[in-house]
Q: What sequence folds into this?
């Protein structure tokens, strides 16, 4: 047979183009993310990223935004039963502890801000963990790992106590759902299993060796069939947690703090080297406070979390920017935003927990005043100092700093049909926190309470050499 020469050239050209396209696709598809970094800890991109593939939701009656895939649906279902925005948030948070075990659980804590439109009232709840009463400044003997991993790193959990306080608040309850309704959907997830998401799979892979070295954590995060951490798409079942949640339905939060779960829970932690006592559990209480507020452009009012949260810092930033940032966006505008943040974070290290540090009042009220911001911290500098250059180093770095400020925040929020709004924030320090698992699924670290050395503390938000070094 014979083939004409032009036809041979066409066929060869097509084959070469296909091979070239395949090679390019394999190169860009299989190469490590950003010069060898993993997806969990990527470097800052040097070119614009593509738009997110997450669809934008448009809702008429209510909305719930969560991290765990099924948790928004659980929150929505509570709203459909005419539950309140607060009750929907509680149900979603129970779910988050199962859907996002790397981030939170019954051993954690949170801040919550609630807006009730009918009355115009804003509530803030501090339900963060606290240090055990036996905690001392030198209990880690200079070993920072002990403040991050193991029994000694465990703080008194506050998550469940906060849920109960929210549900029991007479102004935030709907009267249309029971405590059981908020927990049973999560029990179902525990029993039927929940698929490992891409993010969780990435976290487990990055921490595999550490997980294998801790049997209590490996019991739930290692697949016995493969002796590896659970992979993307695997289903994790939590039958023991389901049993614990059924007890919590029956006894309420007191099951963990002064009930049938307390003794075994404390024993588990102490067997792992912790210092928590039954008295620590019984003595824990949450704190309700007034919000930190600010009037912004466009007839907007900001309401946010007071100390030991970072609402004061946020208000200070926005008050500075509120004065001079133009409506349009350009490089200079972003520069000024960045410089304002640098200065505000310098002042952040002077703050702490007002429950335990009594001189914070000298710093906090001025920090949230618009006059203080517009005179640039009351130190004689006008806002023009930000200008086109960089802020003087002395202004952007506080002399009280005594530790690396490092944390990631996770948030869920919901807006109800009656326009009530709930925003919940918890702090992600390490994966997966203290790397412990007990029958009550505790997992939380004292690392948020330390600077360069260990200090006695109560759920401090930022490290410092001064104010945040507080006591149990």
A:
């Amino acid at each position: 047979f014979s083939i004409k020469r032009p036809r041979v050239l066409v066929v060869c050209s097509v084959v070469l183009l296909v091979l070239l396209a395949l090679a390019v696709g394999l190169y860009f598809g299989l190469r490590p993310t950003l010069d060898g970094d993993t997806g969990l800890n990527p470097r800052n991109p040097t070119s614009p990223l593509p738009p997110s593939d997450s669809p934008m939701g448009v809702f008429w009656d209510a909305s719930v935004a969560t991290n765990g895939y099924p948790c928004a649906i659980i929150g929505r279902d509570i709203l459909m039963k005419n539950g309140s925005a607060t009750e929907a948030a509680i149900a979603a948070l129970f779910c988050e502890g199962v859907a996002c075990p790397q981030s939170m659980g019954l051993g954690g804590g949170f801040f919550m801000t609630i807006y009730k439109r009918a009355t115009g009232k804003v509530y803030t709840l501090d339900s963060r963990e606290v240090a055990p009463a036996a905690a001392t400044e030198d209990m880690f003997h200079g070993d920072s790992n002990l403040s991050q991993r193991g029994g000694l790193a465990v703080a008194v959990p506050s998550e469940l106590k906060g849920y109960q306080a929210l549900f029991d608040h007479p102004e935030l309850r709907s009267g249309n759902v029971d405590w059981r309704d908020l927990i049973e959907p999560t029990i179902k997830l525990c029993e039927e299993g929940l698929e490992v998401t891409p993010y969780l799979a990435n976290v487990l892979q990055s921490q595999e060796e550490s997980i294998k070295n801790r049997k209590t954590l490996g019991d739930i995060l290692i697949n016995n069939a493969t002796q590896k951490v659970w992979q993307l798409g695997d289903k994790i079942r939590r039958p023991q947690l389901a049993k614990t949640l059924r007890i919590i339905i029956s006894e309420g939060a007191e099951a963990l703090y002064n009930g049938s779960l307390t003794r075994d829970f404390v024993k588990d932690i102490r067997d792992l080297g912790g210092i928590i006592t039954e008295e620590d559990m019984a003595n824990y209480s949450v704190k309700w406070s007034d919000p930190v507020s600010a009037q912004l452009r466009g007839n907007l009012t900001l309401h946010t979390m007071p100390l030991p949260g970072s609402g004061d810092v946020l208000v200070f930033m926005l008050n500075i920017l509120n004065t001079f940032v133009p409506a349009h966006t350009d490089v200079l505008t972003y520069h000024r935003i960045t410089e304002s943040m640098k200065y505000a974070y310098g002042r952040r290290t002077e703050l702490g927990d007002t429950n335990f540090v009594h001189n914070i009042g000298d710093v906090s009220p001025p920090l949230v005043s618009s006059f203080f911001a517009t005179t640039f911290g009351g130190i004689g500098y006008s806002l023009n100092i930000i200008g086109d250059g960089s802020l003087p180093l002395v202004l952007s770095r506080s002399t009280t700093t005594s530790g690396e400020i490092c944390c990631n925040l996770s948030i869920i929020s919901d807006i109800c049909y009656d326009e009530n709004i709930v925003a919940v924030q918890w702090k992600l320090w390490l994966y997966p926190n203290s790397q412990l698992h007990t029958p009550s699924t505790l997992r939380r670290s004292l690392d948020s309470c330390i600077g360069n050395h260990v200090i006695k503390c109560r759920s401090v938000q930022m490290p410092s050499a001064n104010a945040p070094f507080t006591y149990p």
